[in-house]
């Protein structure tokens, strides 16, 4: 079962409804805390290969009246960066803090040469006691027929592209890889039985990928039109045949994540259809172990 891996577009309330309501209704500037969980993209551990100590003083930011604190885990590695700043809403606080942390993270990365990524975040309205969180979840484990036949040699390069999309730690890479699968479905002989000519973007696809919130109107688009819509997004990430230096703010990153999720999901449906046409079992067995 396909699941979206990028959840940047969501912000889940964690406190009682009244606190959340009061916070959303209040347009006054007030203090927020925004904590960013950090991840090592190689080990997938929620920590960076940076030494951090308890009790370090707050550090200044480029934002007025704002500061941040570095927080270690039990191993003494940097696990979270917490911002304290004034804002009029949780969303504004998150975007302001993210826009300060991302280039700061790039500076740390450039200095030491280690992989670094933001894994998720939490936001707290200190006036109303409202709290939100956005973190990846671990889905249930699925059964698979380990004795099933390998993917045919002609189809393997296309499925390899899908593997890159599923393994990608960022939305841009996921979009590039899944867009490759969508394009292949229209032209590659290995995908001739994928149903690419009859596929339509369904409400289920939009809901499942999170792309229902996008204003572009993807509902009922044929694959050719979806590829045409996504091509400018794909081409923007490539310049002259190489990856382009692109830096997006959080709003643009959220949109890119939803588009990548949609392309990723459609790529999976097409590959499953091709496998089914070749006589492969494509429906996985039920989930066995639920994890949070």
TrEMBL record:
It holds the Pfam family MauJ. InterPro entries: MauJ (IPR035383). This is Methylamine utilization protein MauJ. It comes from the Bacteria.
């Amino acid at each position: 079962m396909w699941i979206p891996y990028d959840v940047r577009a969501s912000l889940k309330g964690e406190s009682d409804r009244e606190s959340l309501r009061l916070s959303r209704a209040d347009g006054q500037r007030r203090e927020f805390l925004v904590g960013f969980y950090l991840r090592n993209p190689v080990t997938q551990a929620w920590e960076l290969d940076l030494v951090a100590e308890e009790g370090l003083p707050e550090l200044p930011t480029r934002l007025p009246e704002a500061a941040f604190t570095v927080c270690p885990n039990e191993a003494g590695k940097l696990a979270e960066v917490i911002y304290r700043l004034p804002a009029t809403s949780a969303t504004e606080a998150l975007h302001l803090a993210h826009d300060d942390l991302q280039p700061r993270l790039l500076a740390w990365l450039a200095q030491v040469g280690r992989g670094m990524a933001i894994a998720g975040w939490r936001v707290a309205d200190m006036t109303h006691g409202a709290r939100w969180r956005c973190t990846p979840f671990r889905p249930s484990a699925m059964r698979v027929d380990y004795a099933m036949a390998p993917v045919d040699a002609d189809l393997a390069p296309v499925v390899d592209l899908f593997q890159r999309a599923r393994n990608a730690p960022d939305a841009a890479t996921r979009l590039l890889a899944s867009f490759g699968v969508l394009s292949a479905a229209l032209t590659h002989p290995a995908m001739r039985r994928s149903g690419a000519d009859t596929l339509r973007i369904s409400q289920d696809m939009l809901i499942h990928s999170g792309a229902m919130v996008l204003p572009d109107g993807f509902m009922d688009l044929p694959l050719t039109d979806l590829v045409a819509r996504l091509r400018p997004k794909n081409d923007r990430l490539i310049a002259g045949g190489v990856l382009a230096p692109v830096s997006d703010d959080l709003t643009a990153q959220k949109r890119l994540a939803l588009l990548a999720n949609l392309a990723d999901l459609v790529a999976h449906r097409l590959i499953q259809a091709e496998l089914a046409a070749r006589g492969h079992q494509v429906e996985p067995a039920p989930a066995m172990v639920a994890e949070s």
